[in-house]
Amino acid sequence: MLYQRSSQLFAEAEKVIPGGVNSPVRAFKAVGGTPIFVKSAKGAYLYDEDGNRLIDYINSWGPMILGHAYEPVVQSIIEKAKLGMSFGMPTELETQIAVLAVSMVPNIDKIRFVNSGTEACMSAVRLARGFTKRDKIIKFSGCYHGHSDSFLIQAGSGAVTFGTPNSPGVTAGTAKDTLLAKYNDLGNVKELIEANKNEIAAIIIEPVAGNMGCIPPVKGFLEGLRELCTANGILLIFDEVMTGFRLARGGAQELLNINADIVCFGKVIGGGLPVGAFAARAEIMNYLAPLGPVYQAGTLSGNPLAMAAGLAMLQALDSDREIFKRLEEKTAYLGDGIERVLKANNVAFTINRVGSMISVHFDANPVTDFKTAGNGDNETFKKFFHGLVAEGVYIAPSAYETWFITDALTYEDLDFTINAIDKVSKTF
Ligand code: PLP
Where would one find the signal peptide in this protein (predicted)? Predict the structure, then answer.
């Protein structure tokens, strides 16, 4: 495949955009080479500026669960755009998507829309602090909750890929209120709670971690967190920016049968437009301005185009009772196929998978937390990544990322991908 035009475009971008990209994970720093510039995308495929077609396993890092340029979403955006782009006044559409989201997700009464997953998590933590009148939070190493200051402490994927888990610019004052725990280690959380009695407002967690590869919670871990939170007056925040409307209609809460106190959304909920949201029972949400004292706002929050895209997406997911089962089956098929060919080619690997999230780690030992996620062989990953691109398959340019399976993928696409992996892994 040729990447002449992508290289030229990247050189031009680098002159005016730091690193040539508007989000670091898009750069090829961890794998070498220059980013591929996209011209368009439809269904399961990306079409780049050099005319190459790639099967897409990133899907805009999650939102495109039904494939790119999904027709009902495209149509609803076009129709709404004709009626005006933004008003800064309430619209009926906001209530419609809120009603649908609240009906799909367990254990929430009210939802507030924002513009990104970062904003959702940042606002959820402020709300938890206001509600509990406590300052500290617990987050887990390798979990990413957006780029707000309090979260940039061992923050997984992008931050790890670039070797800056603790970003300069985050003050010591902010960092001191974020306590770090090990994912899947309940004892560690207990110790932190003991050492900070009545000071912890919230525990924030990706219920299925997706920013150090895909890491499922071990049995009893989330149940234990729930109990600890309830016993100690701590709010449990599920960051479902990745898992929400992806693992089940009601996200990880439904799949794993655990109730969180506050739930954060992003990605799928916006159908590909910039949307985030956070939700909780009324007692907590009523703490938000204008009803309550915790301030949170946004000029473009609830933007009509974004709400139209999100509503069309949620309606599609709500009306298709087989969708999450179908996605799971496709992901299992892919996982089994990858396992078969990597084994046949004597590659050391571990595959983690939950619903339509899957990750391949080049290490034979179980990958259960941030530390074990770091044991993968990055040199093999680089060959894997570039080999797959050459075969027409695009995965995230970092070993710390989950692949997102979309319903637009056919079994032929999956077979094509498995064959490509077979071919590439013979060259390791
Ligand atoms: N939370 C999780 C679990 C995420 O994966 C991400 C982004 O990847 C975020 C929060 C931040 O969302 P955004 O990039 O929309 O700000």
Answer: none
